Amino acid sequence: MKLNKEQKRWLQINEVMIMKILNDRLEDLKEQILDCPEDKRDVLISFIKEYKLGLQIVKDINSPEKSQDFTGI
User: Fold this and answer.
1) C-beta of residue 29 within 8 angstroms of C-beta of residue 45
2) pLDDT tens by residue, 15-62
3) How far is CA 50 from CA 10, 20, 46, 54, 69, in A?
4) What is the per-residue pLDDT across 51-72, written as a single tens digit (0 to 9) for each?
5) DSSP letter string over 16-68?
């Protein structure tokens, strides 16, 4: 996923609030695992892992130096 300069700047300005909202949502999802039927739990866990990856991408985009394994996907 490529972001233009305007989008990157917006992320930098709003990173704290974005991360707070997304982390709160992540906690909600973790709590829902117990309510999820056992046969669908793996799907929810996979989604949570992808969600966490997205959080890391936001952090990496705003980092002054890119991590060595940053792909921008």
Assistant:
1) no
2) 889 889 888 988 888 888 888 888 888 988 888 888 888 888 878 877
3) 22, 17, 6, 6, 16
4) 888 888 878 877 776 555 555 5
5) HHHHHHHHHHHHHHHHHTTTS-GGGHHHHHHHHHHHHHHHHHHHHHHSSS--T
Q: How many residues does the chain have?
A: 73
Chain centroid offset of residue 17 CA: 13
CA–CA gap between residue 27 and residue 69 (Å, rounded): 26
- Whole-number Cα distances in Å, 29 to 39, 40, 59, 68, 70: 16, 13, 20, 29, 25
